[in-house]
Amino acid sequence: MNKDIINTSFFIHQLKQGQNSAFETLYHLYFQKLSHFANSYIENEEESQEIVQNVFFKLWKKREKLAVDVNLHSYLFKMVKNSCLDYFKHQKVKANYSQHCDIERKKINHFALMDTPSTLYIENELLEKINSSVDKLPEACKRIFIKSRFQGMNHKEIAEELDISTKTVENQITKALKFLRVELKEYTALFF
């Protein structure tokens, strides 16, 4: 029988019984080797050591489920490799989340800037200008535009209510929008 298998079986048997001395021996035998192995993947000593610490913690928690014939050397290195791969996945998730947060933060800052007193003043001024411009529209055009844009009616509803064709409604709204674009051109540069 191979001497390594006998030693591994012995340690596993001791671990399964909760022997701290067996765990401590394994820890001292493998910690540096496993840390070096982890560091070859992630190139960060502190993180590598933390990964190995977690591997030993998992080993202790799973000790009762260990198979007696498992190759402990391979088992530990495989656990470290898998933990390194999990580390990379976690880093990618963190980077994506951070990027998402940056985008959201920029949106919030943009909208926060829009609530400044000067922006509110411009909004109020714009609303007054829109109202006065709408009042300048010919009466039929004005009535159709208000029903469409302020009352939320669709073209068919307006046409039925005013007993006109939907084509007339479309033409009047197009006419109103052209007029308002000219009237409000100084404000469109601020918002578009």
Descriptive terms for the model:
Rna Polymerase Sigma Factor, Chain: A; rod-shaped; 9 helices; 192 residues; Arc Repressor Mutant, subunit A
Describe this protein's structure.
There is one protein chain. This protein is mainly alpha-helical and 192 residues long. It folds into two domains: 3-99, RNA polymerase sigma factor, region 2, helix turn helix motif (Rna Polymerase Sigma Factor, Chain: A), CATH 1.10.1740.10; 130-191, Arc Repressor Mutant, subunit A (Orthogonal Bundle), CATH 1.10.10.10. The chain is built from nine helices and no strands. Helix 2 crosses helix 4 (72-114). The longest helix has 43 residues, at 72-114. Residues 1-6 have low confidence and may be disordered.
Which helices and strands, and how do they pair?
Blueprint: H1 3-16, H2 20-42, H3 45-61, H4 72-114, H5 117-135, H6 139-150, H7 155-162, H8 166-183, H9 185-191
Strand portion = under 5%
The top-level CATH class of the largest domain is Mainly Alpha
Major sheet summary line: none
For CATH, the homologous superfamily of the largest domain is named as RNA polymerase sigma factor, region 2, helix turn helix motif
At the third CATH level, what is the topology name of the largest domain?
Rna Polymerase Sigma Factor, Chain: A
**Outline, from the CA principal axes?**
rod-shaped
